[in-house]
């Protein structure tokens, strides 16, 4: 299904485990459920296909979260539509009560066939638009999916910048709590490194050649160059103040 949806230029698909990859690795202090509200505030819609124990758990947990439930679309296999089960009598019924367009069904044997399932995919796009209209996403750099637009120019301007300073910069720019900014920055850094526009060394984060090209194409170079001039000898100046609004104005 993701391959079919990805053909639509208006859609961008993310997986929670990819967004929070570094945060969820190992025996860390974070869990996907603990970050569910951030997920709800960041995306237009959440599509869950209950076909494994993990997805059953997510469906149950997310359906009981008011913010998440308002953005959820559950895609269920036709063969389980009338089955007497906890999923049907619990989270799926709860979602249908919230919105009649929150639960869609189709034949999973042909789920990846866009022609045979044309009607289903039309209904899915309609459901996404309804969710998007009811719960619009705030377009801001404190959105975990948009934070890279702030983090990348910061690395461009301050070569070798470290995590702690990035947390502080985002916190000052958005007014958000340090803990929240730490999660957002770590997720953005992970995304940028996967895209190979930045690299991490023992000295900090550095922009790559590909990243430099991306910045110069997508951001206002004049604004960034003026900021870079103001920040020369940054470490040796005690009274410098960074105008975060200027960084925002460099965004495409």
In brief:
The chain is mainly alpha-helical.
Write the layout of secondary structure elements.
Layout: H1 2-5, H2 16-19, H3 21-24, H4 36-42, E1 46-48, H5 53-63, H6 66-69, E2 72-77, H7 86-98, E3 103-106, H8 118-134, H9 148-157, H10 163-174, H11 178-194, E4 198-201, E5 204-207, H12 209-218, H13 221-230, H14 244-249
Parallel strand pairs: 1-2, 2-3
Antiparallel strand pairs: 4-5
Helix pairs in contact: 5-7, 10-11
Plain-language structure description:
A three-stranded parallel beta sheet has the order 1-2-3, sandwiched between helices. The mean pLDDT is 83. It is mostly helical and 252 residues long. The protein is built from 14 helices and five strands.
Q: What is the CA-based Rg, rounded?
A: 21 Å
- Major sheet size, sense and barrel closure: 3 strands, parallel
How many strand units? 5
| Widest sheet, order of strands | 1-2-3
The percent range for helix content is: 40-55%
Inertia-based shape:
elongated
Q: Give the class from helix and strand content and strand pairing.
A: mainly alpha
Number of helices: 14
Low-confidence stretches: none
Mean pLDDT over all positions: 83
N-to-C CA distance: 30 Å
Tell me the β content: 5-15%
- Overall domain count: 2
User: What order do the helices and strands follow?
Assistant: HHHHEHHEHEHHHHEEHHH
């Amino acid at each position: 299904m993701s391959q079919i949806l990805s053909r639509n230029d208006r859609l961008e698909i993310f997986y929670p485990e990819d967004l929070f990859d570094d945060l969820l690795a190992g025996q860390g202090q974070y869990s996907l459920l603990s970050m569910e509200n951030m997920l709800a505030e960041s995306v237009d819609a959440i599509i869950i296909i209950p076909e494994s124990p993990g997805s059953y758990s997510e469906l149950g947990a997310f359906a009981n979260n008011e913010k998440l439930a308002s953005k959820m679309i559950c895609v269920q296999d036709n063969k389980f539509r009338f089955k007497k089960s906890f999923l049907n009598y619990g989270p799926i019924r709860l979602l249908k009560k919230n919105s009649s367009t929150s639960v869609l069904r189709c034949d999973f044997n042909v789920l990846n066939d866009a022609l045979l399932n044309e009607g289903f995919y039309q209904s899915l796009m309609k459901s996404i638009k309804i969710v998007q209209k009811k719960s619009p996403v705030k377009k801001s750099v404190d959105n975990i999916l948009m934070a890279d637009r702030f983090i990348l120019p910061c690395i461009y301007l301050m070569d070798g910048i470290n995590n702690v300073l990035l947390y502080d910069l985002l916190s000052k720019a958005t007014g958000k709590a340090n803990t929240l900014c730490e999660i957002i920055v770590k997720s953005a850094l992970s995304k940028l490194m996967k895209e190979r526009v930045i690299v991490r060394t023992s000295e900090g984060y550095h922009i790559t050649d590909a990243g430099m090209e991306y910045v110069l194409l997508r951001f206002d170079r004049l604004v960034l160059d003026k900021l870079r001039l103001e920040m020369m000898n940054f470490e040796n100046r005690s009274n410098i103040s960074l105008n975060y609004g200027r960084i925002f104005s460099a965004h495409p």
